[in-house]
Every structure is written in C-alpha cells, then in structure tokens.
Specification:
It is a single chain. By secondary structure, the chain is α/β, with parallel strands linked by helices. The protein has 10 helices and 12 strands. The strands form 3 sheets. It has a 5-stranded mixed β-sheet with strand order 4-3-5-12-6. The chain has a 5-stranded mixed β-sheet with strand order 9-8-10-7-11, sandwiched between helices. α1 crosses α4 and α2 packs across α3.
Length: about 300
C-alpha cells in the first residue's frame, strides 16, 4: 500500500518521537535499534516534509523548537491512541487480555505473589505477565503496562501513585544478633549488600554515628530476596526494608539487629502511562492494587518485629 501523500512517513514520525522524547539522536537510535545517522536522516526528512525545523542541533544533544515541542505532543498522543487501540484488539480467543507488569523483586516476592490468587478471582479475564527486575525501565521503548518502582522524580507522560513508604532495617538471625550490642559491632561481621541499592549500608551506618565503618567481610547479591535468604541462613546482616521485608518467606528466621530507627526516603510507586487509564483492564488492575495496599497498610502493626 502506497504512503498517503497527506501524511508524513511513519518511520520519520517514529524517529522524531523517539528523539524528541529522549532529547538525543543517540538515545533514540538505541531505543529503535538503528544508527544515529538513520535517526538524523529520518528527522531531516520529516523537517523537509513539514517545511520547518523541529530541533535546534547542539554538540551533544538536540533541543526541540517551539513548533517541534507542539508537534511532539500531537504525535505522542496519537501513538498512545494507536497503542491503546492495538491492545484492545490483541485479546485472546478466550476473551482474556494480558497486562505486562514490571515489579521490583522484593515487592513481588513479599507482597504481590501472596495476593495473585485474589486478583485472579476478582479479574479472571486479566492475565498478568510479571517481570521481576531491578533495572531502570523505559516506557517509551518497552512493552509494559504497569511498573512498581522506587521513583526519584517525575517523568513526562507518566502517572504515579505512591504505594508504600519503606525504611532501612538491619536483619539477621537470632544467633547472630546475640553477638551484636551496638552498630560498631558490625565491624566484626559480614554485611550483605544488594547491588541495585548501592550505598544503602553506608547511609545507614552514617545515620547511626558509624560513618566509615568497614565490615570484616562484604557479600553482595543482585536482589533483596536473595540477600534476605542469605541473612536467614546466618551468612551476615542484611539491610532489609521495613515493613515489607517482614512479609517475605524467610521473615520468621530473621530479627531486628538493632533497635535504631533510621527513616529513609524510599517509597514504592505504581507507574503507568497517563493515556493507558483509558483502558479498562489497566484501570481495573490499578484500582485493585491501590485497594489491596490500603488494606495492607491499615493492618500493619505499629512495629514489625517478630521476636
């Protein structure tokens, strides 16, 4: 089918949207798996078709012109509508629809998995495809519907709902805790780290007056559930997240290492595209998550310490 002469080429629109969203031809090239020169060529073709520049070129980045910024909004909304329509069409023969969710490992293990049966009963026609990863995700290039993340700042085009505030909490076995009186005693122990939470122990130690403390040994895992499992097996002291760490499968083998309360700035957020609120299945999943979290928080004891 020939290209409609009244519409700019789709490949040019895709390149423009990726470059305008990322503010970089190189980042757009990575998102679309093409070369930066291909992005530049497509953007110039679009600018030629429109008869005006969409970007101001600089040495290492590009900036949208006022006309480019306005056009990007129109293109972005149009792509969102196309995606929403395609998702509605992509329903299985059984009448079910799949939602792709990216959730952090600890949240998935401790909170989400125990509630999946309840979700399936409430929404039998929604199938969840859950990816557990610590990596940074990009809604502009990944086929995701919802994400549960620790968010540091807003991203244009995305909506956020806070789910739960958490704070750091050293956890270990009861046997190991008998060797601990004050945080300085950690110098004779193994500290268990999570690679996705670099600096967590350093911040906690500084907050309790032990900045610069070096442990006898360090042990690092790529996820919080693995770190807590190691702590439950007596391999050292892990820096868990209160209150959610108390809901992990190994929580009954862990106790609070110290009574110190250190407030943190971390929170779990539910993240999604604003345009996806028009999809009933996305709205249903969001409403369910928020309602379940509200019940969870209401039922939290004042202090989560199983010993």
């Amino acid at each position: 089918m020939a290209q409609d002469p009244l519409l700019p080429p789709l490949t040019a629109l895709q390149a423009f949207h990726a470059a305008g969203t990322a503010g970089s031809f190189q980042a757009a090239a990575r998102a679309l798996s093409v070369t930066p020169s291909a992005i530049s060529h497509q953007v110039r073709a679009l600018e030629h078709w429109l008869g005006k520049p969409m970007f101001t070129r600089q040495v290492r980045r590009v900036t949208l012109t006022p006309e480019g910024r306005a056009f990007l909004g129109v293109v972005g909304r149009s792509f969102d509508r196309i995606k929403a329509a395609a998702d509605r069409m992509r329903v299985s023969d059984t009448g079910s629809v799949t939602l792709r969710v990216s959730a952090l490992p600890l949240f998935t293990s401790a909170w989400l998995i125990p509630r999946l049966e309840a979700f399936e009963r409430a929404h039998p026609n929604i199938v969840l495809d859950i990816d557990t990863t610590n990596r940074i995700i990009d809604f502009t290039r990944e086929a995701l519907d919802l994400a549960i993340r620790n968010v540091t700042g807003p991203t244009p085009g995305l909506q956020y709902h806070k789910l739960l505030d958490v704070r750091p909490l050293p956890l270990c076995t009861l046997k190991l805790r008998d060797q601990l009186s004050v945080p300085a005693d950690l110098a004779r122990q193994t500290l268990i780290h999570v690679s996705a939470r670099q600096g967590g122990w350093a911040r906690w130690l500084a907050a309790v007056g032990c900045g610069g403390l070096r442990a006898k040994r360090d042990l690092t895992f790529d996820s919080m559930p693995a770190a807590l499992e190691a702590a439950a097996r007596g391999r050292g002291v892990a820096l868990g997240m209160d209150p959610i760490s108390w809901d992990t499968p190994v929580a009954d083998k862990l106790v609070r290492a110290f009574p110190h309360r250190v407030d943190g700035t971390a929170s779990y957020y539910l993240v999604f595209r604003k345009a996806d609120l028009a999809r009933r299945e996305v709205r249903a999943c969001i409403d369910w998550l928020l309602a379940e979290m509200a019940v969870y928080k209401r039922n939290l004891p004042r202090e989560r310490n199983p010993d």
